[in-house]
Amino acid sequence: MVFFASLMLVTQALFADPALAINPSPQFIATLEDDPFVAQQVSKLNQFREFPVANARPGESSVILLVETDVKGTVITLNERQAIDAMALTALREGSYTLEAKANHYADFKMPLLIKSGMLYRIKIEMVRPVGFLEVHSETPGVAWTVDGAQIPKRTPLGEGRHILRGVAFGFNDIQQDIVIEQTKKLVVNAQFTPATFDLSGLSVSRQALTHAIRENAEWFAYGVR
Q1: What is the spatial distance between Cα 173 and Cα 193, in angstroms, rounded to a whole number?
Q2: Are 124 and 74 in contact (CB under 8 A)?
Q3: Domain architecture of the chain: domains with CATH
Q4: Which of 43, 58, 110, 156 is the most exposed place for a label (fewest CB within 10 A)?
Q5: Burial of 65 by CB count in 10 Å (0-12 exposed, 13-18 middle, 19+ buried)?
Q6: What is the pLDDT of residues 1-10, one digit of tens each?
Q7: Residue 78: other Cβ atoms inside 10 A
Q8: What is the CA radius of gyration of the chain?
């Protein structure tokens, strides 16, 4: 019984060693998929306000448009042709327009706009930097997943770019792999863990150390020998 307990405790200590071998990529399958939910990320309207222009007469080209965004370099267009400057007053004729805003690495913004003469319209657009998603699967129970050292759930949003994914399960070799996240895409990972094996030849543990370990892990020991 004591030998069994000591063997289990030594094995437990070995599993906790971060220097243990890590499973290579053959046990790791990553697939990039389209996901309607992920792809629906768009920049959004933050504020829409209209004010009457003083001394304006109906029918005149006194429609004034002020568009603001939170991202420098955003390109703003009306009806896909007329570019307008952000934070500048633009005089327009009344009518229907399609307002669009685009910026590198940000989701597009698009909205219909019906404007009337004699009004000033102030529009604020919040440009959204879209993220990708990571979804991890494994038949091994009790896997703890981390990305760049931070623990994650089985499905989580991640910023675009390269990350380090690591999976740890007691009794199995760890899996560690570089992954690349793309905007508005879902990366699905299926990981197969392999049981860990250790060579205990030449390993010696003092009786005092084993006694201390058993006392410190009494509850775990009692569970392990049932």
Answers
A1: 6
A2: no
A3: 1-16+199-226 (no CATH), 21-41+130-195 (2.60.40), 42-126 (2.60.40)
A4: 58
A5: buried
A6: 443 334 343 4
A7: 17
A8: 30
